[in-house]
Amino acid sequence: MEVREFGAEAVANDAFRRVLVTTDHVQVVVMALRPGEEIGSEVHPDNDQLLTFVEGVVRAEVGGETATVTAGQTVVVPAGTRHNFTNVGDTPARLYTLYGPPDHDPETVHETRADAEAAHA
């Protein structure tokens, strides 16, 4: 049995994106957004996504709705829904996110958003 503390792993993470766990049906990824940084507007046609924020203040834009999200809150993004998250605070925003089914290569580590964009170019 594997027991993990994803919140603590998210707090310790400084990479833009780091895959922690990938199974046949779900994937867990930690992310860090610098002040002013955004994930980037995107749609996952076949993947539901749950994002749990552990540090920071983020503007969430999901399916045309906007909300301010803080530590301890989770945002649900159904497959096919356009979304973006922007760090609107003065400190890094950290989160862990679950994709079902998996969305990224199991070995993915993008230290910066530029690295992530280059990998998908």
TrEMBL record:
<feature type="domain" description="Cupin type-2">
    <location>
        <begin position="30"/>
        <end position="98"/>
    </location>
</feature>
<feature type="region of interest" description="Disordered">
    <location>
        <begin position="100"/>
        <end position="121"/>
    </location>
</feature>
<dbReference type="InterPro" id="IPR013096">
    <property type="entry name" value="Cupin_2"/>
</dbReference>
<dbReference type="InterPro" id="IPR011051">
    <property type="entry name" value="RmlC_Cupin_sf"/>
</dbReference>
<protein>
    <recommendedName>
        <fullName>Cupin type-2 domain-containing protein</fullName>
    </recommendedName>
</protein>
<dbReference type="InterPro" id="IPR014710">
    <property type="entry name" value="RmlC-like_jellyroll"/>
</dbReference>
<dbReference type="Pfam" id="PF07883">
    <property type="entry name" value="Cupin_2"/>
</dbReference>
<feature type="compositionally biased region" description="Basic and acidic residues">
    <location>
        <begin position="102"/>
        <end position="121"/>
    </location>
</feature>
<dbReference type="InterPro" id="IPR052538">
    <property type="entry name" value="Flavonoid_dioxygenase-like"/>
</dbReference>
